[in-house]
Amino acid sequence: MTNIPVTTWSLEQTSPDDLLPAAAPEGDVRIVRAEAPSPEFSRFLYASVGGDIQWIDRLSWTYAQWQRQLERPGVETWVVYDRGTPAGYVELDPQDDGVVEIVYFGLIPAFRGRRIGGHLLAYGAARAWDLAERWPGLPQTKRVWLHTCSKDGEHAMDNYLRRGFKLFDTKVEEEAETATPGPWPGAYPG
């Protein structure tokens, strides 16, 4: 098996004032919180959004692992719909001391390049900043962070920077080259 270098960039916002808005896309585009924890739906989003960019870390999770993650206080999934069809999502995960990680963010391939991603990212980051308002007992958000890597979409880093995220760390590591799994095996050539 061949190893490939993968660069991972970590980015953050340290104030809600850092967040830069994005123009709303045209048409019937809505963002809705998935309030009922659903391992099936979350796995569908994860596999559909990340299948062509090698998101593989959660593919082996059991139903119980998905359920535990989704039921953690403060974990939220916000789904963007285009004319009623799920187009992508952002998953928020509160950590210690008022830190919220945007753990996953992205669009299903058919919905990329239509100005939906910037809108979803800005909306998701805003929900990270006001997370404590929906979850009594969580501390007020002091920092929102995420990471992206060289395997992600070609416009990912630019989108994060345009939304006001600032780079705070860069790492390069060798990873085993893996086949692109697609939302189901063989869905994407490559």
From TrEMBL:
It comes from Streptomyces shaanxiensis. Pfam families: Acetyltransf_1. This is GNAT family N-acetyltransferase. Residues 29-190 form the N-acetyltransferase domain. InterPro entries: Acyl_CoA_acyltransferase (IPR016181), GNAT_dom (IPR000182).
